[in-house]
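fyi for ur records
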Amino acid sequence: PFFSLWSLYMTLKFVTRKVTGRCEMQRICYNNKPGARRTLKIESSLKFSKSGVRHIT
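which gave:
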């Protein structure tokens, strides 16, 4: 069950990316005004990201 839900989620993300032409961060920033709600959505997206956050020094 978990695998199929995860596969569905990833498929939806892929389709959304192809249809909108925007990555997840661009969609979050484009659809939400600056403020706490947008910040929380960005944090949530980064938290659940497979690739993690890379720091540039």
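The mean pLDDT is 81. thats all i got for now
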